[in-house]
Structures are given as C-alpha cells and as structure tokens.
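Journal club prep, shared notes

We agreed each person brings one worked example of a sequence with its structure written out as tokens. Mine is DUF2127 domain-containing protein. I'm keeping it raw so we can talk through how to read the token line rather than staring at a rendered picture. Sequence first:
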Amino acid sequence: MTAPLRPPRPKTIEFAFMGCVVSALSAFVTVILYFVGRDDMIALGIKPLLPASMLSQEQKEEMASSVVDSSLTTVAAFYLSVACLTVALAILVRRRRNWARIVLTVVAVVGLAGVRTSINGQAISPAGMLPLLTLAVNIAVIVLLYVPASNRYFAKPKPQG
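Then the structure, token by token:
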C-alpha cells in the first residue's frame, strides 16, 4: 500500500496566510497610533473630571494621564499578543493543522466582535479606518479558510491501493 497523496497547498490558504499577516501588522500600527494619540486621550479623560472641584487641575491631569497610560499598556499588550498568536496560527494552518484553522477562526470571529470605531458618534480609535480594513481582512480570512479548496487541503487523505 502506498502512502496517501496529499493535495498541494491551495492559493486560498496562501491568501488567508497573507491576510493574517496584514491583520497582525494592522494591530502593530494601531498600537503605534494609540500611543501617538496619547495626549488627545488624556485631554478627553480630563473632561469628566472638570466638575470635580475637589481636585486641582494638576491632579486631574495626573489622574487622566495615569488612567490613559495604564490603559494603553494593557491594550498594547493585548493587541500585540493577539497579533503574534494570529501569525503563529497562520503558520500552523499553512502546515495543514486543522485544529489551528479552527482556533484561528475563533480568534478572528472574536476580533470581529471587538471592532469599534465610535460610540454614540464619538471616535474612540485614533487609527481611523484601519479597524474597518482589519475587519474586512478578517472576514476574508475566515471565508478563505473554509472554501472547498481549503477544505480539501485539510481533509484526511484516502489511502491508495
């Protein structure tokens, strides 16, 4: 009995891999843009503190700066971790690991739910349209991972002979 033949890697998997890389790069760019927009976030953070007359202006600025800095650190760690996970999973998908395709799909779907560019018309992302581009790329990656050519790639090979 000869070894089962596996189909070559389809273009759909290559395009999904490239989409994952683009999505990860957009996360890196988003983190950079968040840090660039730090001062604007601090200014927005001071507004709710303005009626608090018990705090001096300096204390309000210090409080807003502290909240923004800790938030930026947390968001940056999360975005960069997810970006690295996405690339690692994409590499495993290229190596025909079906479990990685499933986990990558879950990560992408959770990412779709997390895309927010505004709340009540107030922009919350200094990245502008980048989250929407990432949303489109993630949708394309999900679709590409499950088209028939990709499904054949992950199917168990049938023994020959």
